[in-house]
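haha ok so turns out i had the wrong file open the whole time. this is the CORRECT one, sorry everyone. sequence first:
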Amino acid sequence: MEPTGPEEQKDPFKSEIVLYFIKITRTLFLGFFWMMINVFLGLFLGFAVPEESTPGRMVFFYAFATLTLCAYLYMVWKWWRKKIEI
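then structure:
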């Protein structure tokens, strides 16, 4: 019997590639977004520049950058350790 519905005609290989591409896109987008936030805070607002910032602001910035980097890496690790389910 021939498959007739759209669910039965899907090629599992192509949908696996699409899901893999989505993982890559999410990882890159979130990484670039994290970098843009830190560049904005650190360079544009001057939190990371010693001549323009106070020690308290620098401590806040570097603590924020470190904590958010750890959170980003944890999220990426959780995304990539899951198997692709079709």
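Helices lie at 12-44, 55-81.
again sry for the mixup
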